[in-house]
Amino acid sequence: MSTAARTVCFVSDRTGVTTETLGHALLSRFAGLQLDSITMPFVLSATAARGVVTRIDAIAAAQSAKPIVFCTVVDDDVRTVIKQANALVIDLFSYIGELESELGARAGVDVPSMHGATRDPTYAARIGATNYALPNDDGGGQDYRLADVVLIG
Fold it and tell me: Cα separation of 39 and 28, whole Å?
């Protein structure tokens, strides 16, 4: 096994928490790996996806092994661009068609609905904390009543 760290990218059209959770669950099956993780959130357009591909390709050019990319982007056009990266791209939504066939129902394309994918209270708390922190970061919001800690300085 190589001792060089592998770069793992988590590409998402939301915060990336779901992508990280699923990707780390799969990677946990491989003990002893050294991984450098990069989360690339809010990839909402083909233009943004091309920027992500450029970044991933630069990582691939600088390292001896291709990056591993976990992707949870709903939009087909955006996913198609991401799959062009010089990387092992693991589309975590690739099984949607099989699920649709088995369940006899069409999957929704509402991006935020992904956060209902798990009922784990720790996961739900992490999503909630992220959703709270984003609009309130750097004093951007004024809703501090729910904060456990407020850092000033």
Answer: 17
Average pLDDT of the residues of the chain: 85
Nearest-angstrom CA–CA distance, 133 and 110: 22
Question: Cβ distance 46 to 79 under 8 Å?
Answer: no
Distance of alpha carbon 73 from alpha carbon 90, whole angstroms:
11
Q: What is the mean pLDDT of residues 110-130?
A: 63
User: What is the distance between the alpha carbons of residues 150 and 153, in angstroms, rounded to a whole number?
Assistant: 10
Sheet containing strand 35-40, edge to edge, reads 35-40, 6-12, 68-72, 88-91
The secondary structure of residue 85, as a DSSP letter, is: S
State yes or no: pLDDT of 76 exceeds 70.
yes
Going 100 to 115 to 78 to 39, the CA torsion angle's sign is: negative
pTM score of the predicted model: 0.72
